[in-house]
Design brief:
The protein is of the alpha+beta class and 254 residues long. Helix content is 31%, strand content 33%. It has eight helices and twelve strands. The mean pLDDT is 92.
């Protein structure tokens, strides 16, 4: 087992895996990473509002890395990885419980051309980046459209918001949040209930994805695995799915 101390080491050990590189967050202070055989683990405190260990590779060396990372970093860290790997880890590390599965979706672009639904046809709709003083409008929209959204205005790591406006009303939003140098992340996607089904959120996601691809080279988001309408919307701009369960120590479920 060896500790990785640079982005280049993490990239080489993981074959530039998008999920691992997102977790590495440019190896900013507080991030730690290890490799053993073909396995890599990155421990990122406070990433997407939780302490997370992201792991990749064969189960045996990956289990050793996860055990080491938990001992080094503490029991509040949740373990994320591909579905087959997390299932194998919970068998090898019985202290871990798998508790949720979601989809990681990403693309290296380009975003394929396509209509933005009603947003393209409706001349009263404008999609743009929002100014910081418009954060209260985002908060109001999330309160009614997605009150459990992990991204909220003002949270550390949430950098900026984009929105679709129609007749002076913010009808959809999405954030650039917890992005890494080589992987931009979309979060906080929401549409006002009265305006759903018109692909306004897809229009905002296309706007954000295009900007993040230009800035980072890849773009990703996370979505509940059983939330089929947004998965379809995210697939249209070219994002591909990857099932990612999370596991945790049951005594540290908060």
């Amino acid at each position: 087992m060896r500790e990785l101390t640079s982005v280049d080491e993490v990239r080489s050990a993981s074959a530039d895996d998008a999920l691992i590189m997102w977790g590495a967050q440019g190896m900013k202070p507080g991030i730690r990473a290890w490799a053993a055989a073909d396995a890599v683990a990155v421990a990122a405190p406070g990433l997407f509002r939780r302490d997370r260990i992201i792991v990749l590779g064969d189960p045996a060396p990956a289990a050793a890395l996860v055990r080491h990372a938990l001992a080094e970093c503490g029991p509040t860290f949740r373990v994320l990885g591909d579905e087959h790997l997390v299932r194998a880890l919970t068998e090898r590390l019985p202290e871990l419980d798998s508790y949720v599965t979601f989809d990681w979706m990403d693309t290296g672009g380009p975003i394929p051309p396509g209509p933005d639904g009603a947003a393209a046809a409706d001349g009263r709709v404008t999609v743009r980046w929002l100014a910081p003083d418009e954060d209260p409008k985002v908060a109001d929209l999330l309160e009614v459209a997605s009150p459990t959204s992990w991204a909220q205005p003002g949270l550390p790591g949430v950098r900026r918001w984009a929105g679709a406006w129609r007749d002076g009303e913010l009808v959809a939003c999405a954030a650039d949040a917890w992005s890494a140098p080589t992987v931009g992340l979309i979060a906080g996607v929401a549409t006002a209930p009265a305006h759903r089904g018109r692909r306004y959120a897809e229009a905002v996601c296309r706007h954000v994805a295009t900007a993040l691809l230009a800035a980072h080279g890849r773009v990703a988001l996370m979505v509940d695995a059983d939330n089929h309408p947004p998965i379809r919307a995210y697939t249209r701009p070219g994002l591909t799915r990857r099932g990612i369960p999370a596991a945790r120590l049951p005594d540290h479920a908060v």
